[in-house]
Fold this protein.
Amino acid sequence: MKTHVSWIIAALAIALAGGCNRAESPAEVQADVADAQAESHRELADAQATAQEEMNDAQRDLVEAQQEGDRDAIADAAEEASETQAEGEHRISVAQAEATHRVAIAKCEALTGAAQDECKRRADDELERAKRNADARRDGTG
């Protein structure tokens, strides 16, 4: 009896594992890719708008400091504007990388088994590489 139950459990595990990497139909993949692209456009637009708003604030602070004529305040505001610009560029770069990743993962769903796993692994690796590059550019090391 124990052997019979073990075989049933093993068969179920294999069946469940096989279903995880099934290919989606071309129509499902196309719909998923379209959804991923739309979401990516929204998130990228949000990142760009936020970066622009923060840069506008930093520029306004710099202009105010220049009008006051305080050299220390000007230097501080200029440094803040530079850091704000770098952070905004970083935010946009990361949003672009995540958008590319989201679409790539959706496209991977057209594949099966090991090919799907490899496709997703490559997409994940590319996302991490893009984030590291964005960090390096922001931090002045890249």
About this structure: Residues 25-139 form one domain. The chain has four helices and no strands.
